[in-house]
Amino acid sequence: MNLLRFAVRRLLEMAVTLLGASFVVFGAMYLAPGNPASFLLAGRSASPAALAAIEKQYHLDDPFLEQYLRWLGNVLHGDFGRSLEYRTDVSDLLSSRLPTTLLLVGMALVLVVLLGLALGWLAAVRGGAVDSTVLVGTTFAVGTPAFVAAILLQGFFAVELGWFPSSGSGSGHGIGQMMWHLTLPSLALALYLVGLLARVTRSAMLEALEGEHVVVARSRGVPERHVVRRHVFRNALGAVLTTAGLIVSTLMVCTVLVETAFSVGGIGQLLELAATTKDFPTVQAICLIIIGLFMTVNLVVDLLLPLVDPRITLGTRSSS
């Protein structure tokens, strides 16, 4: 399939999926117990006339489909509405907090890729005690939830040793201070995925090591480091790339727990606060952003797979 045609088809599929997701996200407001207008009153009592005035002001008395189409039109123009909790535009809230979350996720992703690939490579190539050590370490990592890792890292490195800050993002003090503040949160966020990627890399490389092309390359006297790099690791990259969607989605979900534990102040913590206070416009906006990011990563992975592994055609993924 032509690359351009495939990309266009996937973009159209993404648009349809996002449209469906937006309908579900918006409709979820009506599944919450109580009247949406009651959340605007923050627990205060109001007369029926005052309640009707609030519903009219926020168009809550309009038919559901009309409300959804109005909201969708605003979203397409970059307007996610006004936060019910913070009394400001949701777009402003997101723009002030999104850089912190992106830096946190970026730092965690770097740790996941570097440590996960390195540990998987070492376990597959070295074997023996190295392989056993990596398996034990990754078992611990995969079995440790992000919020547990956050508590352990915070208690030991921040409270006991005092090496890192226990909370905050360091925003407003330069990129260096932000990275220092986000070191422990990024470690807590990356721990599970490092173990997962290391195991996927190890399994894929062990399978590639048994391939006939590897035997042929060794019989021709190709140096072992070239065999591993060119014939083993490259063939294993297809299986590694297929986990990219899972990695990104896990990072975005777990950042809610980690940011809350460290009081980072990104969109993960904002989502938790918005869900607690029934701040529907904010929850809707963040959910759409996460869904869009997940779908974009999957599209990029599908476009990269044929370049990494020529055996894979557009629209298919390796099952190895």
TrEMBL record:
UniProt xrefs under Gene3D superfamilies: MetI-like (1.10.3720.10)
Coiled coil: none
Transmembrane segments: 12-32, 102-122, 134-158, 178-198, 236-262, 282-308
Cellular location(s): Cell membrane
Keywords for the protein's UniProt record, in alphabetical order: Cell membrane, Membrane, Transmembrane, Transmembrane helix, Transport
InterPro entries associated with the record: BPD_transp_1_N, MetI-like, MetI-like_sf
Membrane topology according to the record: Multi-pass membrane protein
All copies of domain ABC transmembrane type-1, residue ranges: 98-301
Family according to the record: Belongs to the binding-protein-dependent transport system permease family.
UniProt protein name: ABC transporter permease
Source organism of the structure: Streptodolium elevatio
